[in-house]
Amino acid sequence: MSTPVKHAFSNAAFVALKDVQLQTALDRGMTRAVNGRVAAMSETSNAPALRQQARRARLDALARLPELLEQFETAVIANGGHVLWAEDAAEANALLVDLCKRENVTRITKGKSMVSEEAGVNHALEQAGIEVVESDLGEYILQLAGEPPSHIVFPVVHKTRQQVATVLQSTLNMPPTDDPEMMTRFVRGVMREKFLASELGISGANFAVAETGAIVTCENEGNNRLSTTMPRIQLAIVGIEKILATMEDLGTLMQLLPRSATGQRITVYNNIMTGPRKPGEKDGPEAFYVLLLDNGRSRILASEYAESLACIRCGACMNICPVYQNVGGHAYGAVYPGPIGSIVTPLLNGLSTAPELPQASSLCGACQAACPVDIAIPAMLLKLRRDLNDTKQTGAIWRIGMRIWRIGMRSKALYDIGTAAGRITTRLLGGESGVLRRLPPPLNGWTDSRDFPALSRERFRDRLARRSKTP
Ligand code: SF4
Fold first, then answer.
1. pLDDT tens-digit readout, 314-339
2. Which of 7, 97, 373, 396 is the most buried (most CB within 10 A)?
C-alpha cells in the first residue's frame, strides 16, 4: 500500500520537469509510441468498430466475472493445472513462498508482470531467501538499478541508452559500449544461464481465457516463453479482471493490444499456455499453476468505477497524456502511472493515499480517444475529484474557492461583475505585456511554472454577438 505524502505528485513532477535526461528520454519514447500506435491502427479496416467490439468483450466478461472465473478454474484443472486464489497481496506472497518451499525452489526467472509489481512479489520471495531474476530486458535493467518501472509497457523508458550502459557496466562489468544491440547481446548471455538454472518460471498474463483455461502473454523478447517453458514449474500470476470469455474474444483483443501498446500488428511471441507437459510431449513444464489475485478488484467491480477494470494495460493513454509525457511514470509514485493509473491507484490503495492523482490531468480527453477499449477515463477522474471533495480531501481554500465559483456561475449579474473585475485586475497587474508572471498566494502555484495571460478585453459572448450583427 502506498504511503500518503501530501503533495508527493506535485513535488516529484517539479523535479521531473527539470531533469534534462528524463525529458530527453520521454520525448523520444513517447513520440515513437504515439506515432507507432496511430500508424498501426490506421491499417485496420474499421478501427472504431473494432474498438467497440473489444469494449463489449471486456465489459461482458466483467459483468459475468464470478461465473467466468469458475469456468476458468474448471478448465485449468481439466488441463492438469492448479489454481490458487488470493484475496490480497499478502496471501498471494504467502502462497508463492509456500509453493517454493514445497517444491524446493531456490531460483526463479520471471517475465514482466505489473500485478506482481503491485503485490510486491520479488521482495517477498527474496525475503524468503529465493533468487528472483527479471527476464524482460527493461525490467532486468531496473532490477539491477534498484528502481521500479516507470511505464507499464516500456518499463525503462525514463532512461537514455547512456544511462542504461552505466547501469550494466557498474553492476555486471559489461565492456564499455552504449550500442543497444551490443548491450542486448551481453544481457542475453547473462540471462541464458539464469534460465537454465531456474526451477520456477513466473509470468503475468495479458489475458486468461475462461473457455479453455489458457493463459496468454504477448511479448517481443522471447523471455516470457523461456521463463515459462524451461523451468520445471510454471506459475502465472493474474489479476482476476484479466479474464476473457472465449478464444474469439481473444482474437478481437489481440488485434488491438499490440497496435495500441507498441505500434505492431502483432507481437513477435504470442504464448497461449494451457497446462503442464502432457504424456509424450517433448517440452513444457512438469507443473502448471495459476495464481488469481483479487487485491481490491472485487470492490472496484461493485462500484461505479467498474469500467476501469476493462483496461488491457496497453499504455496508450500514458503515451498520449500531456501530463505523463512531461513528468514520466515515477512522479505518480505508483505501480500504475498515467491517466488509468490515476484512477486505479486511488481505487486500489484508498483515495487518501493518492489525493493528487485524480487532479493530475487536464481532462483533454486524449486518453479516452487513444484507449483501445474506449474507457471513460476523464469521466472517472471527474468522479474521483467529486469523491475527494465529498470527503473533504481537497483543502479548505479549494473548497471555498469552488463554492464562490459556483455562486458566480449561477448568477448572470455576478458572472458579469466577476469577469469585468477579472479583466480590469489582470490588465492592471499584467502591465503593458498583459501577462502576469507572478500571482499572489494562494494562486502562485500557477505562476510558479507558467505565465497567466490577462483576460481578453472582449468576452467571447460579446464578440459573438458583435460578429453575428455584422452583415
Ligand atoms: S486505460 Fe485504455 S489506453 Fe490506458 S492502458 Fe488501459 S487499455 Fe490502454
1. 999 999 999 999 999 999 999 999 99
2. 373
